[in-house]
Design goal:
With 111 residues, the chain is mainly α. It has one domain. The protein is elongated, with a radius of gyration of 32 Å. It starts with 7 loop residues before the first helix and ends with a helix.
């Protein structure tokens, strides 16, 4: 998720307005609200909206799949616990004994 944060690189890639005239900075403050300034703002907002749209396009499918997997895992665990809860103590004991003996035989065979 950290890859979707705004970084300095995002702002460096924005088109920079290069002043072609040799006017001092005080003269540019007078013309601050000219059409070029608004175009630059619109361009920056458009770039930001594009970044947000790309981020959503990349992260929403992952989040949906994560939620589906989490729900399936909970459902399987619930089913497993229900099945284990239905077993009697004697059958569970024999099951665990057989698993233990199987592991012990496998250990001796693999040696």
């Amino acid at each position: 998720m950290e890859s979707s944060y705004l970084t300095v690189d995002f702002f460096r890639r924005l088109p920079q307005e290069v002043e072609k005239s040799g006017t001092p900075a005080a003269a540019t403050n007078i013309d601050r609200y000219a059409e070029g300034h608004f175009r630059r703002i619109a361009s920056n907002v458009s770039s930001y909206i594009g970044l947000v749209a790309d981020t959503l396009r990349n992260t929403i499918p992952k989040a949906v799949v994560y939620c589906q997997v989490r729900q399936a895992k909970q459902s399987l665990l619930h089913h497993f616990y229900t099945q284990i809860g239905k077993k009697e103590v004697h059958s569970l004991g024999s099951y665990f004994l057989s698993v233990y003996l199987l592991r012990k035989c496998t250990f001796f065979l693999n040696g």
